[in-house]
């Protein structure tokens, strides 16, 4: 690696770290001013717990969120400074092409991408779980009880559905249970019970005060009973997974959950798929945003660094806008979540290629 490459790579990484260091304290200060009264309401909540369980994870989550913005601003900032000091002109005068000039930026983007991939797939989900649990326990207006689930519905297969009014995880007991079986759009069988209890020893369910209804073409058949032992293609653990947010699962758990749900024939998993695909698409955007920033800032402009920053920040907000729109549309039932999540990268990737070609010719 040449001295020039080391110089630019050092500037790249140090500038990203500097921008993040400036952004995070501002975010923390704003959050403290909003939450301090809620912290003080809990006499049993120590400063150490607030820092360890809330703000440490706050830094991890929001640092990861701010990373693309920090990278874009940092690259524009120090590249504009290089152009303003005529260093880039000197580099080109030394017969170094624009493509060769991009090499240290590519290395820096690779380092950031690998770091962001590890964060998104493994570290941030764990931090999200602790962070959201802290919010539910101390900050949320309405308390959340993970051991008590309300209005649970689950699709077991292409034609099989279950419904539960309530389910207590502590004693594996559910109330107002129903199981429905369809053939196409036609209901053919329905099973009701006042209570349902999971027996872990033999992996069966016990239904209390049950009613079976068989629906035939010309008549119905109804059967009653006080107790029924049977099996279903789910366990209480599957019901709990439905209540958890996708962002709180590590990618391996999220992938297993998606595959398991697909086998059961769950029709719309796009909320989970959006979260899964986003964990890869956002880190990859480091390359795209880096090349766009270099292409914009490598030319010396009359307005100087301010013009480059204004253009860059405007593009960054447009990218974030497209990203949020893509997430919302991707969660819809009739959309391809993979295409929607990657569409901002595709659009801005095309812009990066255009700017690269234009700069490489000059």
Q: What can you see in these coordinates?
A:
- With 362 residues, the protein is of the alpha+beta class.
- It has two domains: 3-141 and 269-361, no CATH class; 159-232, no CATH class.
- It has helices at 3-40, 47-84, 87-93, 98-101, 103-139, 236-243, 251-263, 270-297, 305-330, 337-361; strands spanning 148-157, 160-168, 173-183, 186-199, 204-215, 220-230.
- A six-stranded antiparallel sheet has the order 1-2-3-4-5-6.
- Helix 9 (305-330) runs antiparallel to helix 10 (337-361).
- The mean pLDDT is 88.
Helix content: 55-70%
Instruction: Based on Cα principal axes, name the global outline.
Output: elongated
How many helices in DSSP terms? 10
Which series of helices and strands comes N to C? HHHHHEEEEEEHHHHH
Strand tally: 6
Strand order across the largest sheet: 1-2-3-4-5-6
Alpha-carbon Rg, integer: 27 Å
Quickly give the structural class.
alpha+beta
Mean pLDDT: 88
- Poorly predicted regions are none
Secondary structure layout plus pairing:
Layout: H1 3-40, H2 47-84, H3 87-93, H4 98-101, H5 103-139, E1 148-157, E2 160-168, E3 173-183, E4 186-199, E5 204-215, E6 220-230, H6 236-243, H7 251-263, H8 270-297, H9 305-330, H10 337-361
